[in-house]
Automatic annotation (TrEMBL):
It comes from the Bacteria. Coiled coil: none annotated. PANTHER family: CAFFEOYL-COA O-METHYLTRANSFERASE 3-RELATED, O-METHYLTRANSFERASE-RELATED. Its EC number is 2.1.1.-. InterPro entries: Cation-dep_OMT, SAM-dependent_MTases_sf, SAM_O-MeTrfase. Keywords: Methyltransferase, S-adenosyl-L-methionine, Transferase. This is O-methyltransferase. One of its GO terms (molecular function) is methyltransferase activity. One of its GO terms (biological process) is methylation.
Length: 221
C-alpha cells in the first residue's frame, strides 16, 4: 500500500464524513501563506482529537505545541461554552499566526495562548495551580517528551487523558540504537508511559495524508 493510497483514503474519509469547513481551510491557507511548516495534524487526526475531547467530556485542555493552531481549533470547538484550552508555543511568529487563526475561527474566547519555551510556561501553570487538565495533547519538540509527560502528570487528575503525537515516525521508533533525536523522544514517551504505574496507555498507528506515524494515548489513574 502506497502513501498515495493512504492520502486518497484520507480524502475519502473527509469527503464522506466531514462537513465543508471553510474556517479550517482558511487556517491551513494562512499557515501556508505565512511560511509555517505543514506539520499540523491531518483533518482526520484533528477530528479524532475533537472526538476524544468530547468523549472525555473535557472542559480544560492543555496543548503543548501550537504551530498555527489547527489542532487547537479542532479541540476548542469540541469544548463546552465554559471550556478552555491553554496552548503553548515557543515561536512568536507561529503564535501570531495562531492568534489570527483563532480570531477567524471564532474560538479566541476559549483559547489561552502562552508564548515561550513550554517548560517555562508549564512551570508557570504549575505555580498558578492551573490544573488539573482533563486532556493534554503533547506535540512540540520531541526530545522534551519525557519532560512534558512529567509536567502532564503534575497538571493532571485521575482520569486525565494524555495524548502524545508523532511516536511512530515511519516505524523508526523500532530503532533503539539510532541518533535521531525525534526517535529518541518517541521512544522516551513509550518508556515514560510504560514505566509509570499511574499511566495505562497504548498507541494508535496512523497512515494518511501525513504519512505513517501515530499517537500514544494514556489515562491517568
Ligand atoms: C508539530 S508543531 C505543532 C502542530 C500543532 N499541534 C497542530 O497539529 O496543528 C510543533 C510546534 O511546537 C513548537 N515548539 C518547538 N519547541 C517548543 C518549545 N520548547 N516550547 C514550545 N513550543 C515549542 C514549534 O515552534 C511548533 O510550532
Ligand atoms: Mg504532530
Amino acid at each position: 500500500m502506497s502513501r498515495k493510497t493512504w492520502a486518497a483514503v484520507d480524502d475519502y474519509i473527509v469527503e464522506a464524513l466531514f462537513e465543508a469547513d471553510p474556517a479550517l481551510d482558511a487556517v491551513l491557507a494562512a499557515n501556508r501563506d505565512q511560511g509555517l511548516p505543514p506539520i499540523d495534524v491531518s483533518p482526520a487526526q484533528g477530528k479524532l482529537l475533537s472526538l476524544l475531547t468530547r468523549i472525555q467530556g473535557a472542559k480544560k485542555v492543555l496543548e503543548i505545541g501550537t504551530l498555527g493552531g489547527y489542532s487547537t481549533i479542532w479541540m476548542a470547538r469540541a469544548l463546552p461554552m465554559d471550556g478552555k484550552i491553554v496552548t503553548l508555543e515557543l515561536d512568536p511568529h507561529h503564535a501570531k499566526v495562531a492568534r489570527s487563526n483563532f480570531e477567524r475561527a471564532g474560538v479566541s474566547e476559549r483559547v489561552e495562548l502562552r508564548v515561550g519555551p513550554a517548560l517555562e510556561s508549564l512551570a508557570a501553570l504549575g505555580a498558578e495551580s492551573a490544573g488539573p487538565f482533563d486532556l493534554i495533547f503533547i506535540d512540540a519538540d520531541k526530545p522534551n517528551n519525557p519532560n512534558y509527560l512529567s509536567w502532564a502528570m503534575r497538571l493532571s487528575r485521575p482520569g486525565t487523558v494524555i495524548i502524545c503525537d508523532n511516536v511512530i515516525r515511519d516505524g523508526a521508533v523500532l530503532d533503539g540504537g539510532g541518533h535521531d533525536v525525534n526517535v529518541v523522544g518517541a521512544r522516551a514517551a513509550f518508556s515514560f508511559i510504560g514505566g509509570d504505574k499511574r499511566l495505562d496507555g497504548t498507541a494508535i498507528q496512523t497512515v494518511g495524508a501525513k504519512g505513517y506515524d501515530g499517537f500514544a494515548i494514556a489515562i491517568v489513574s
